[in-house]
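Protein Record: Sequence and Backbone Structure Tokens
======================================================

Structure line: whole-number tokens from a learned vocabulary of local backbone shapes, matched to residues.

Purpose: to set a sequence beside its fold so the mapping can be learned.

___
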Amino acid sequence: MLAWAVLLFVVGLIVGPVATLFYGAFRSGGPGLPDASFSLDAVLRVYASTEYLGSLFGTLALALSTAALAVTFGGLAAWVLSRTDVRARGLLELGVIVPLFLSPFVGAVAWSMLAAPARA
């Protein structure tokens, strides 16, 4: 019973904002304006722009290449750890799951520090 309540709560946290986002995307005016109507103009204007399409294709290329690398290295690590008699097996298993323990915030801070200008 508790699991269903938690699931319903989490679904509500996700569906509510997403539904509001889609509702606002198809409105011709701002939220609460009485003269606003439903229209595809804003959606077509965004999705037909070259800036958006360039970002979309760049994002898709990055996502596909990242997924391919992750599956390749993850499959290789899984095969090595399950099918071979490798030394330091416990250490390697721990090394494979360490990224699950790190918050994405740590990675974001690391990348921002890496891209920061050098100080003399």
